[in-house]
Amino acid sequence: MIYLNEDIETLDVRTALAAVSEQRRQKVLQYRQIHDQRQSLAVYLLLCEALEKEYGIIEQPEFSYGAHGKPFLDNHPDIHFWRIYGQNK
């Protein structure tokens, strides 16, 4: 499945920060630009939506990272993230 959010610029950062995990909140607040904060929040919220719809997971995802920086979900090692080559990081 592909999940999209085409309305990032109207995302209310304060409200969204209250709805995400502490781990994501800290990551978001490292960004200086409001657009970057909104993007990080939107991606996380889309992931939460996808995890609920596809796997029935309702808890907020917490990430760890492998030796080469690849993310994985702490409580769901059976879910994998793939990078689409040719796309910006």
General description of the model:
The chain is built from three helices and two strands. The chain has a two-stranded antiparallel sheet with strand order 1-2. It is globular, with a radius of gyration of 13 Å. By secondary structure, it is mainly alpha-helical. The protein starts with 12 loop residues before the first helix and ends in a 16-residue tail after the last strand. It is 40% helix and 7% strand.
Attribute tags:
89 residues; mainly alpha; 2 strands; globular
- Low-confidence runs (pLDDT<50, min 5 residues)? none
The main β sheet shows up as: 2 strands, antiparallel
Structural class: mainly alpha
- Strand arrangement, major sheet: 1-2
Radius of gyration: 13 Å
Count of DSSP helices?
Answer: 3
Question: What value does the average pLDDT take?
Answer: 86
Please write the string of helix (H) and strand (E) elements.
HHHEE
Total E-strand runs: 2
Shape: globular
Alpha carbon gap, first and last residue: 20 Å
Fraction of residues in β-strands: 5-15%
Query: Helicity, in percent?
Result: 40-55%
